[in-house]
Fold G/U mismatch-specific DNA glycosylase.
Amino acid sequence: MTPEELQAARDRTVPDVVAGGLRVLFCGINPSLMTGATGHHFAHPGNRFWPVLHRSGFTPRQLKPGEQTELLRYGLGITNVVARATARADELSAEEFREGGKILAAKVEDLRPRWLAVVGVTAYRTAFGRRTARIGPQDHTIGGARVWALPNPSGLNAHWTAQTMAEEYGRLLAHVDPDPALSTEEP
């Protein structure tokens, strides 16, 4: 991607990867410019979402961003708190996060996932007015779904390694209903 192509993706939106009744709906902060340009969630090469999703056990192999619709086979989906693409999340206003939280709550109520996993605790705090929220399970539901705040997989998040993120995502997986598509048992 050229710098011009990336800048042309500013403010684009990317379609959600969703279906009704998902096991987990992963919710990013907002699309990166690379995601906006490609139309694939977590597309920036430095983003650790796809490796962490596999390492934690959510997928049987590491998917590529272009394979994002395969998540639906495992009862998983992707959306964002704020729909518009930016170079950095700090380009978003608190009002955008709060409005995005309202839109997300309505989306979750409509789709009825069992879990909403917000990948970015600061975005979660701002969008839902949970100033003291920490990584892990939350004490309330959104749109009927249980909520888990996960570390942001962006390469800019130096506080977490891919391994420690995979451990936290694995903690969530331990609370999620088993996926028959990942079962190794013979019928």
Observations:
- The mean pLDDT is 93.
- Strands lie at 24-28, 76-80, 115-119, 136-142, 145-150.
- Residues 94-111 form the longest helix (18 residues).
- Residues 3-179 form a domain with the Uracil-DNA Glycosylase, subunit E fold (CATH 3.40.470.10).
